[in-house]
Amino acid sequence: MESLGFILRDMLENMEMQKKNMEKLLFELKNKLSRKAKFRTIIALNITNKQYLFEGICDGEILNEKTGVKGFGYDPIFKPSNASCSFAEMNSEEKNIISQGVLPFKNWFNF
């Protein structure tokens, strides 16, 4: 059970670090006109000394403040292009259509 305590502690520390990073980003962008951003995820598949990369990119912008409670990481401050809300406000079906985290898996499955 000791290892579970370490895992929980590490998770809480990571969540606190993500919160601080998000607050720092919002502060740094406070008076910036351009808030364009993109989420990018790459998955690597290594088979018999060959590497295949599967990429997902979601263009969008950093919002002025956190919105929504779903998701994780920067979801509360990232609004994808052509969306009316942040990732943290979307249900999983909406998010899975455009998420950079899902796109590389779709490409991998079609490989």
At the fold tier of CATH, the topology name is: Maf protein
The H-and-E topology, N to C, reads as HEEEHH
Shape: globular
Architecture per CATH nomenclature, i.e. the level-2 architecture:
Alpha-Beta Complex
Largest sheet features = 3 strands, antiparallel
Number of domains: 1
Structural class: alpha+beta
Low-confidence residue ranges: none
Radius of gyration based on Cα positions? 17 Å
Number of strands: 3
Description:
This protein is of the alpha+beta class. It has one domain (2-109): Maf protein (Alpha-Beta Complex), CATH 3.90.950. 37% of the residues lie in helices and 25% in strands. The protein is built from three helices and three strands; from the N terminus they run αβββαα. The chain has helices at 2-28, 92-98, 103-109, and strands spanning 36-47, 50-62, 78-80. The protein has a three-stranded antiparallel sheet. A hairpin with a 2-residue loop joins strand 1 (36-47) and strand 2 (50-62). The longest helix has 27 residues, at 2-28. The mean pLDDT is 85.
Give the gist of this structure:
The protein is α+β, with helices and mostly antiparallel strands and 111 residues long. Helices cover 37% and strands 25% of the residues. Strands 1-2-3 form a three-stranded antiparallel β-sheet.
Describe the secondary structure blueprint for this structure.
Layout: H1 2-28, E1 36-47, E2 50-62, E3 78-80, H2 92-98, H3 103-109
Antiparallel strand pairs: 1-2, 2-3
